[in-house]
User: Fold these one by one.
Assistant:
Number 1:
Amino acid sequence: MTASENDLPVVAFHPFRWGDPAHATHLPTAAKETLAAFGVKQPAPALEPGAVTLPDVALDAATLAEFAAVVGEEHVSSAHEARLAHTRGWSTPDLLKLRSGDASDAPDAVLYPASHDEVVTLLQLCGRLGVAVVPYSGGTSVVGGLAPAREGFAGVVALDLKRLDAVVSVDAVSRTATLQAGMRGPAVEAALGAEGFTLGHFPQSYEGASIGGYAAARSAGQSSAGYGRFDEMVVGLTLATPRGTVVLGTAPKSAAGPDLRQLVLGSEGTLGVITSVTVRVRPRPEVRIFESWRFPDFETGAAALRRLVQDGPEPTVLRLSDEAETGINLADPSAMFGGGPGGCLAVTGYEGSAADVEARRADATAVLREAGGELLGPEGGEAWRQGRYRAPYLRDPLLDEGVLIETLETVTFWSNLHALRAAVTTALTDALTAQGTPPLVLCHISHLYETGASLYFTVACAQTDDPVAQWHLAKSAANAAIRASGAAISHHHGVGTDHAATYADEIGPLAVDALRAVKRALDPAGVLNPGVLIENLPLRADAAVTE
Ligand SMILES: Cc1cc2nc3c(=O)[nH]c(=O)nc-3n(C[C@H](O)[C@H](O)[C@H](O)COP(=O)(O)OP(=O)(O)OC[C@H]3O[C@@H](n4cnc5c(N)ncnc54)[C@H](O)[C@@H]3O)c2cc1C
């Protein structure tokens, strides 16, 4: 197969500007004119990273020396750049805070272990010293997963796994690969591609996110229709905890007890540090065909896509934009605000062997035509494929121009999908309009299952003087609408700190207690990501410290 948009280099990011600096983008003139019509008037330039002041380092030299004794002095850093680069994640509030100089959540130090054993030793040390630990893979959390509570702790360290970046093994017969947690998406595809395989996991954060974070936050890639969600790919994993090591997944499937792999997947660094994951891999596709479709409206398009996922054949990529998103064309920044073709745009993609692609495409085309779709051809589909990692680059210039732009997602059963979309759209619109900043609310179906689908919203409006508080009100309204609609608070971004209260409400107090009990067993001192996933998980102050 020839080089593709998935064959990207692994590059160092700016502390708060997305992606490969070489791909930084500017807003087209048409976009600026449209922004003025939305009341966006004041540019909101960011501080330079060097001008952001960090809190004093709370850990003393003796503590840092203990960490250095495990990983080596050069792999412990309290330097400004290292702490700033590990301050929170990539949600818009995270960026707004750093852009305005608020780095109050900065870790006191960053530790870079090189092996599973070093991770275990560091966790034991943190338990003994009462230092909170933030497991850090790619750092692309958008739900506050990297900003734990620090009350009751001597300090906070980020445990950056980037030195755990190797392919441990590939089993070509079983089609599995064991990958270390710090491998970023492009490195995984390059390594597996050399063996003739693909992981097939392509989230929009592909350039930044890593294996450990995919597993810890149960990520879903844009080709999930064909390759599955990340949690469906995992057949085994190794977890480092303050009390030792847990190895799970001695066979692909088992009837021996509950599937504890699923307890670790989605645990967001609260139970331990995932140091490696064994995933199923697929042969690198021979052929890839992407096409776009137009449906007269969202309901017709959703019904057509539902037919494919319920009765087949299923494409590898399947998504449907609503009328508003179709008009904006977020997938192609160069055409942004240039207007789409009207109706609702869907993208179908097929990857596999030539015969498989041809057969699935022919059958799916017949289904979609019969369901009211008009095939527009490969141009739009290819533009989407090639631009799929570019949309996040737009956020920085939009924030610079004074636009508040953020995304959120949820998932429900098919029978509830349209009511959920309406409820979230209304909640966001009302909450932002009440603040004098009527928004643009765009939505697409991003991941589909036989029984339901996820909705992904993009919201844009003018920033007020306090955009963090402005977004907080809007997001709280959206969370309440999601709960009231009976949908899940997240399909793939996870819980972090932002969704912890809503998640607790969603699963109920008994389930929360069960999670707390597991946490106590694995992390008795409560040092791992306190306050992430479940609010008020036992902090050191009220936890029995036993190792
Ligand atoms: C622009 C953009 C686009 C995005 N698009 C998608 C998308 O398409 N699909 C999707 O699913 N998500 C998406 N996300 C969200 C994010 O990329 C995912 O949640 C991803 O799985 C996080 O991976 P990471 O390596 O960056 O994890 P991190 O941000 O490093 O960590 C995520 C959480 O897991 C914990 N953690 C990290 N590593 C480990 C480990 N090894 N063991 C235990 N806990 C750990 C962290 O403490 C944190 O709580 C997007 C984010 C951005 C900024």
Number 2:
Amino acid sequence: MKFRNKSLHPILKSLAICVLALAVLPGYAQQAPPQPQPHGINVANMDRSVKPGDNWYLYCNGDWIKNTQLPPDRARISVFSTLADISDKQTASLIEDVAKSKGAGGSGQQKIADLYNSYMDEAAIEARGLSPIEPQLKAIAAIGDKKTLAYALGQTLRADVDALNNTNFHTSHLFGLWVAPGFNDSEHYAAYLLQGGVQLPDREYYLSGNEHMKEVRTKYQTHVSTMLKLAGFTDTDARADRIIALEHAIAEKHLSLAENDDVHKANNTWTQADFSTKAPGLDWTEYFRGAGLTRQTSFIVWQPTAFAGESALVESTPLDTWKDWMAYHLLEEYGPFLPSAIADERYAFFGKELQGAPQQRPRWQRAVVIVNRQLGDDVGQLYAQRYFPPESKAQAQQMVANIIAAFRKRIDALSWMDPKTKAEAQAKLTTLYVGIGYPETWIDYSDYLVKPDDIFGNIWRGNLFQYDRQVGRLGKPVDRHEWSMDPQTVNAVNLPLQNALNFPAAILQPPFFDAQAPAAHNYGAIGSVIGHEISHTFDNEGSAFDSKGQLRNWWTPSDLDHFEAAAAKLAAQYDAYAPFPDLHLNGKQTLAENIADVAGIAASYDGYRASLKGKTAPAQEGFAGDQQFFIAFGQNYATKTRDASLRQQVMVDPHSPGEYRADTVRNIDAWYSAFDVQPGQTLYLAPDERVRIW
Ligand SMILES: [Zn+2]
């Protein structure tokens, strides 16, 4: 599970990811000069007219919220996106240097430069028109029967989903492949198959009776029709109706995001032969042949009912509807790399309508996202060399060690946990691999052909390269030290099947981590993020995997009962939050992340206290050490979000919106004494209502 979702429409293969993060960068557009960042909490961002116990989020961030404008190309800005801007700017300057130096043909540097330039060359993209995609559209048009359709659907399978690490359950392809350590054999890579087939972010967009969602669906119809028209199709309204009806039928078969979270329900091993009996309809032999998976004998099917339902739809829905669906999905996937009429129409719906940002981000910045996605490790290697000093690595490692020690003590002190369970929890901490800054080994892109003037082909081949690379790992021994996040990403991640954590170089920068800031600040800011990731090792998902990453319940029934009672209390706490009168948070959908927030801040607080070694922490602008710790935590979550984007986040994101993540402090006793929070104040919880997980 990663620390935050950067993209709410997780189609990484498209540019929808770009609409979310990052503010306009200094040097690349007009912007006020950046404010100097204080070492420690940022008092200028607070609103001290608010009582901490009444509105903690505004107390920490009120003046920042008042003084911050959402740029037109952003659906949301936050502390994360501001730092991601800096990381993007750093990455862009690396890419520019590389582009100037012109590496040898076939080298990583040449690929970075060619990929970047091929996207930046808008005139060439316009001049080529639809010609790059025409062979693909013709191949779809030539499909003459359901057998050929099954083969073609198999050809679209990509490694574009991720159930547990980067938690991305969305693919617009019929299904998605995730290659990861096996549930039942964590020493070898297994093939996980996940549901797919819809363009909108989640099944609720098709099924919800909410008025806002109905409006979105009306606009979606117009959008689908327009995309088809732009690609030269006739009779596009009728085609759009049929495509959307098919997506609606697929959405009805899908599991919800909350249901996807249950790994025990997901552990379904099917042999290749099982597919035709358990999910009849689709010609599976042809599908797997198209996907190049004929030799793969077994799969873990995450949502069996969705596979049965979607497969039956292949049989029951007319061939022509499926062909239109395929053509339309292809246009969406590659729209950002086609002429602006298509790229802009795509943005108008997925960026502006679904996320509320009226304007696309500057082209160079979208180019950085593309290069990071296709050649992330080549860029990351340069990034780590230039921006991550060894001292930062050493300091971060020390914090991790202190927070792990705090977890050990907390586990030992639990009165309700069985000694055997405690022993396995301690074993998990012993075998935990904590990656700081950058991976130990880098991906080899030699087999990925990048051409200087072919953005469509570059993306097409890049997606295939990544798919082939993943398929090539099936059955091979697991590398537990492998990373699943680039060094240049402002985020952090827990990899439960590897019992590993990654903290990329980019998040180990101010304001989260600052070698010159007081310990109170660093523990409140990055320390709580570190604690959050460690907590995933033991939470409702982590408790399903043992110290070797094997899917095995190592909790006794009474341990589980206690844990689930505490978790239910926390779910109820979050169910009560309502960002809109007609939309509450879903406490179950966000449970794992909320637990990690509670446990993370608790352990980081202990680690912080231990780091003082009995001394009193220095005050900063009148704030005592404990106060700085909690304010730094609250300031992690300063966010401005457009309404459409916030709605989408509430519906599809496993993380709670920033305000409610900041409010985690309600569950920590030390927060009450640090700010003298009293009964009657809005956020006050009586001691027995505060949720203690560990
Ligand atoms: Zn998390």
